[in-house]
Amino acid sequence: MLKEQLAASLEEAFSRCGFAEPSVAQLKTACNVSLRTLYKYYPSKEAMIVGALEFRHQRYLKFLREDAPKKPEDATLFIFEQLEVWMKEFAPHGCLSMNAIAAFPDNELINQAVKEHKKEVQHLLGELSQRPDLSVELFLLHEGVSSAWSLVGKTAVISAKSVALRMLSAPL
Prior knowledge:
Helix content: over 70%
Organism: Vibrio gallaecicus
Number of domains: 1
Protein name: TetR/AcrR family transcriptional regulator
Domain HTH tetR-type: 1-60
Keywords: DNA-binding, Transcription, Transcription regulation
Structural class: mainly alpha
DNA-binding region: 23-42
């Protein structure tokens, strides 16, 4: 339980401050624990980042799944509506996973955590839309919205929903 609480605090700290700025001492303060306790669960800053990313990953998948409609078209629109809420409330500075890769492009553990996250999001998009054959296309729309969010906001969501509906209605 404490490890999960630490991961939640780390997620918030990295989301708010980025990855380069907070020192381990600042992260310890954000977690409200001793340095010994923080290192017991996360023995390096890299491990802290991966822990935060994995925690956020689980939170995001749950966020997309919760209350998702059963009808494919409604579920697909819901995905992008949820993404809009997520960007507004939890990711105003962009995708935390992509920010982690930008900060640590050569770090294998961080890159692997992000790749797994993105792969599972892609799978979930295919599952919720009931169109696994369109999972890559829906994933690209999803990623486009999260990348463009800080520049165009809701317009990205509106456009993605429009394109997604056209894809769903196209003959198989």
